[in-house]
Write a structure and sequence with these properties.
The complex is a heterodimer of chains A (about 550) and B (about 300). Chain A is built from 3 helices and 31 strands. Chain A has about 550 residues and is mainly beta. Chain A is globular and about 55 Å long. The radius of gyration of chain B is 25 Å and the shape is globular. The chains are: A mainly beta (about 550), B alpha+beta (about 300).
């Protein structure tokens, strides 16, 4: 009888706790589906798709109650849309987690995303538009042992489509905010944060040709200083020998240094950044390429362009080695001046450049990059002769009157396609001009015109692009555009890539339809790129948050 | 470097003590960190290559792996993959059956130097079915077996995966007898298969025709392999030309197989393309599980 009462009391108390928890519970999420009906067009190289219709779909469901949270993501690829890795084919729940946080402690089991410092050793993230999801499946601990001190530890295996990669990732990260740590420094004008990470991966060696390191360790140190209008941010990373497909199975240790200095005041902003990357591809499987199983993220020091023709030749960091720098100047010409006009004028000047690193033979009998050797020697501060990418651009934004404003951009790009795309087509030099004019008809209705031109003597020669967009905020938009490769020397290749689009937003749901032709090309987000084959058809995108 | 880091991290207790953090979490953190550092670095000293040979054939019947290398004459990284394939063939003599499949984007025809069409219907079918082109070249399949959820394996992973499979005992043996009529270019081929294991699923048998030593242009970006950006006299080997019995072959046994049983299949085929050099041709025969598509055993013989 006592047992019965004990059990009844236990059940009642658990039910009571559960009710309390559920009273504070929230469920939220988001849904996205993209599907495209494909049509063949031999002129642009759009092949016949046997399924006719391909679709990618995602549903995130998040549950939270007090200190507890849990979530899942369902994904469906029937079948995988063009431009995405076909190994995603199928459906399932590749992401699920449970998390509990209490005061200064946080535990997550299951799938999670994480970043240490700038991500040069560890950046676990999802970028759906590029088909990247390298989430870790394992355990993550976050701990704040003392004010101003933040510790993190991770262990797990990375997502590999609907499976997991072979390698095991382990990492720890510590960060100290000196101003939080010591009360004496809390009011200091100098804000200082220092941090360090150690990341290691384990993958068994079954290779009969090479002796491979099964445990590959890496470490990094970083500092961020803020003083008045100035900010300095820097991180150095080092990785032991990690022969892989990407580095052509060489055993040289890797290293990376990133530094950025910013100054800002009202109407003026200056940023100078530089980095050196040397053999820093880092994946939990040494033989995987593309966007799969990447453990780190090496940001490209280039301006991310969004206009169609400006984004024709995008750059992605070369993990095997590059020396890069970037300077950005933002200046606002004051109102009521000759150049500033009634509303002022914003000018943004940007210059970026990436070169090879210096590479010398290890010895006379070993060729450069010879597999199964150290590969090369490199002077840390020497810059290689080969230019990978250069971008000089200036953007002027001006509001002419209450209804009319414009953004005018000119850029000169140098793009080494051999290095960036791995082709053998040489270097492309291009001038690109863009005029983006917006005319506000009423406070909610506007008309936007983009006129772009790309001039180059290489690749497919000159292009022109025009796009007209009518928006009825906040619900409707309709657009029509065309990219015309009028400069192509082959008459049959002087093609139009027209697009018609329409979008409707209601509350937190949106539907967008795009019909037209898409040229084969490279799409990049944050310096990570994917090749998108040519396509022709109707694309429907539906998103909803709840 | 790992030692330096360990020394540095050994200072952590002093730092923590400075901040008056003698609590269990800090001690636990330090133990975890140190044990983590100690186990997490393998620095390999030269020489970096293994000096042992692959396998020493002791039995008359050996497992023979089917390696399908998806390639294209416009693929600058592909000559490097071919080298890995041939390194493996040297390492495991007689145990790797190689087919190079030219298909997809990198196999397109581009004037003036790349107008030789290495593609064929079977190669196109396989490329589409396995989705190799959309992942990129070079890539391959090893016995069409799935590893970590994917059948597509990068060239630098071929050695590990093949060595792993070759540790397993053969599950079948294929003996081929063939008759090639020079006048009519007709092949009469009979494959006799002995099974050493039981199989529940339908067993299929395929026979492909390959051609060696075709000298033509090939893009290349590796100066260690040859001229950059293209090799004018590249020797294309093991090029898939056709399937003798369609891409997915014929049924060898609809009801699986039992250990000790023998099955046979006769296949006829007439070569109609007069440009193929029959003196450089081989026939590759393999059997596979119709459900998983995994290849059980392969065999190769010269056409003439």
């Amino acid at each position: 009888m006592n047992k019965f009462f004990t059990a009844a009391l236990l059940i009642m108390s658990m039910t009571s706790v559960a009710q309390n928890v559920l009273q504070n519970a929230q469920i939220h999420g988001d849904f996205q589906t993209d599907f495209q009906y494909y049509m063949a067009d031999s002129a642009i190289g759009a092949d016949t798709i046997p399924e006719k219709l391909l679709s990618n779909g995602y549903l995130n469901l998040m549950f939270s109650a007090g200190n507890f949270s849990a979530g899942i993501r369902y994904e469906n690829y029937n079948n995988v849309m063009l431009g995405f890795d076909p190994r995603y084919k199928g459906s399932g729940i590749p992401y699920r987690f449970a998390s509990y946080s209490h005061k200064d402690f946080d535990i997550t089991v299951g799938n999670y995303y994480e970043q240490f410092g700038s991500g040069m050793l560890l950046r676990i993230y999802e970028e759906r538009s590029l088909g990247i999801d390298n989430s870790l499946d394992g355990i993550r601990l976050r701990f704040k042992p003392y004010k101003g001190i933040y510790l993190k530890g991770v262990i797990g295996q990375q997502r590999f489509f609907f499976d997991k990669g072979e390698g095991i990732v382990r990492g720890i990260d510590g960060e100290v905010n000196l101003n939080e740590l010591n009360d004496k420094w809390s009011g200091s004008k100098l804000r200082t944060t220092i941090g360090g990470s150690f990341v290691s991966k384990y993958q068994p060696d079954k290779n009969p040709i090479y002796k491979l390191p099964e445990n590959v360790g890496s470490w990094a140190g970083r500092i961020t200083l803020n003083y008045g209008n100035w900010m300095l941010n820097s991180e150095y990373a080092y990785k032991v020998n990690d022969p892989s497909t990407v580095n052509k199975m060489i055993y040289k240790p890797g290293e990376a240094l990133f530094a950025s200095l910013c100054y800002s005041q009202k109407g003026l902003g200056i940023t100078l950044s530089a980095k050196r990357i040397d053999n820093m591809n880092f994946r939990s499987d040494r033989t995987v390429t593309g966007n799969a199983l990447t453990m780190n993220y090496l940001p490209a020091l280039t301006k991310p362009h969004t206009y169609t023709l400006l984004a024709f030749y995008p750059y992605a960091t070369q993990p095997n080695g590059e020396m890069a720098l970037q300077g950005q100047l933002n200046y606002k010409i004051k109102k009521n001046t000759t150049l500033g006009g009634k509303y002022g004028t914003d000018i943004a000047f940007n210059y970026s450049r990436a070169n090879a690193i210096d590479m010398q033979k290890v010895n006379d009998s070993t060729a450069l990059m010879q597999p199964g050797t150290l590969g090369y020697k490199s002077d840390f501060f020497a810059i290689g002769d080969e230019l990978y990418f250069e971008d000089v651009n200036i953007e002027v934004s001006h509001k002419f009157n209450k209804k009319l404003k414009g953004i005018f951009t000119w850029a000169y790009l140098t793009y080494n396609s051999d290095v960036i795309e791995g082709h053998t087509d040489g270097t492309f030099y291009s001038h690109i001009g863009v005029a983006d004019i917006t005319y506000k008809i009423t406070p909610t209705k506007s008309l936007r015109l983009e006129a772009q031109h790309l001039m180059t003597k290489q690749d497919k020669k000159n292009w022109a692009n025009v796009m007209l967009e009518f928006t009825m905020a906040p619900k409707w938009f309709i657009m029509a555009g065309d990219s015309y490769n009028y400069g192509n020397p082959v008459k049959s290749k002087k093609l139009h890539y027209y697009t018609f689009g329409f979008g409707y937003t209601k509350n937190s749901s949106r539907i967008a339809l795009t019909y037209g032709k898409q040229r084969e090309g490279i799409v990049c987000v944050g310096g990570v790129c994917r090749n998108v084959p040519a396509s022709y058809g109707l694309l429907v995108t539906i998103t909803s948050n709840f | 470097m790992c030692r330096l880091l360990t020394d540095y991290l050994l200072q952590l207790p002093v730092i923590f003590n400075f901040f008056k953090m003698k609590n269990i979490f800090s001690i636990a953190s330090i133990i975890v960190v140190l044990s983590f550092i100690i186990v997490s670095c393998d620095v390999i000293e030269p020489p970096f290559t293994q000096n042992g040979s692959g396998t020493t054939p002791t039995d008359t019947v050996k497992r023979k792996i089917l390696l399908e290398d998806y390639t294209g004459h416009l693929c600058p990284n592909c000559p490097g993959a071919a080298i890995i394939a041939h390194q493996l063939m040297d390492l495991y003599p007689g145990q790797i059956t190689l087919i190079t499949i030219h298909a997809g984007y990198f196999a397109k025809l581009v004037s003036p130097n790349y107008m030789t069409d290495f593609k064929c219907t079977t190669g196109n079918d396989l490329n589409t079915f396995f989705g190799v082109d959309l992942i990129g070249n070079p890539n391959g399949t090893i016995n069409r077996k799935e590893f970590n959820g994917s059948k597509i394996i990068g060239p630098d992973d071929w050695p590990s995966k093949i060595s792993e499979l070759l540790t397993l005992a053969p599950e079948a043996d294929i003996n081929i007898t063939k008759n090639f009529n020079n006048n009519t270019s007709t092949i009469e081929l009979t494959a006799n298969v002995d099974f050493f294991n039981d199989f529940q699923n339908t067993i299929m048998i395929s026979a492909y025709l390959t051609e060696d030593s075709i000298i033509d242009y090939q893009k290349n970006n590796d100066p260690l392999v040859g001229a950059v950006p293209e090799i004018a006299d590249y020797v294309h080997m093991h090029v898939l030309r056709a399937a003798l019995n369609d891409t997915w072959g014929d049924t060898l046994s609809a009801n699986g197989a039992i250990a000790g049983a023998k099955y046979s299949k006769t296949i006829s085929y007439t070569i109609t393309n007069s440009n193929w050099n029959k003196n450089q041709m081989h026939i590759v025969v393999f059997i596979y599980d119709a459900e998983s598509l995994e290849v059980i055993q392969s065999e190769e013989i010269k056409l003439k």
